[in-house]
Amino acid sequence: MAKHPQVSALDQLPALLDDNAPGAIQGGRNVRAGYTRGVGLEFGQLIRLCSEDQLLQRAVAAMHNRSVVLHHKLMNIMMIMRFSSFQETGNIIEFGSFRGGSALFMAALARMLGLKCKIFALDTFAGMPPTDENLDDHAAGDFQDTDYEGLLRLRDEMGLDNLVVLRGLFQDTVGSILHEDSRFSLAHIDCDVYPSLKFSLDWVKPRMEKGGFIVCDDPLTSTCLGAMQAVEESLVMCGAFAEQVYPHLVYRWPPLT
């Protein structure tokens, strides 16, 4: 018998990912859920099951090839949004949207799932700001091919009025999020460099709903040691343990009890 459960159909996932299952919570995270998603995507049947899922296919189509986020990561975000208990609580925020593909993906998926949440997509939409060249491999101006106007046009053409796009430095735009909208169940942080990721984590942590997910796209990438340092300072040193390390780092904040 396999140590970690194999999934034969996506409709089996709710029971395997349930935060209330006996023994599931250890160290403030749902270890069984993390193994189910992570091992299932790296080695198991979840790759095939997710690839064949029509809901995922439709959400991927809504991206219009505007994302560099790896497909396994999109699958993981889909499972978090679809099978987690936070669905009726907070909104979703994305720090670092580049061309907006993953934001379109989450907005389309939320609409298909019947979720009432808003998706906030934050980026300069002009490339990366200046950073410490000794700590971060990326530099000012990287990822500047964003096509901001094209993103807005696609959003409006698809009727995704649940997607709010905020252009500018994070510290300059988060203040425009209304108080009643500033509770989040999912934070997708994809900004590669220390100052941006550090600000994102420190700003969103006190605004996370109970059991919320913080998903960090880049810290395990060889070019993103600064991003890993931000995670260590703002999550690891604050007592958080990762729920997943594949296909990206996933934390529960505040930690589960």
Write down the overall geometry: globular
Give, in spatial order, the strands making up the sheet with the most strands.
5-4-3-6-7-8
Fold-level CATH name: Rossmann fold
Distance between the termini: 29 Å
Instruction: Determine the CATH superfamily.
Output: Vaccinia Virus protein VP39
Can you count the beta strands? Answer: 8
Whole-number mean pLDDT: 92
Describe the structure.
The protein is of the alpha/beta class and 257 residues long. The chain has a single domain (26-253), classed as Rossmann fold (3-Layer(aba) Sandwich), CATH 3.40.50. The protein has ten helices and eight strands. The strands form two sheets. Strands 5-4-3-6-7-8 form a six-stranded mixed beta sheet, with helices on both faces. Strands 1-2 form a two-stranded antiparallel sheet. Helix 6 (101-113) links the parallel strand 3 (91-95) and strand 4 (119-123). It is globular, with a radius of gyration of 17 Å. The model has no long low-confidence stretch (mean pLDDT 92).
Question: Key terms for this structure?
Answer:
single chain, 257 residues, alpha/beta, Rossmann fold, two-stranded antiparallel ribbon, 8 strands, globular
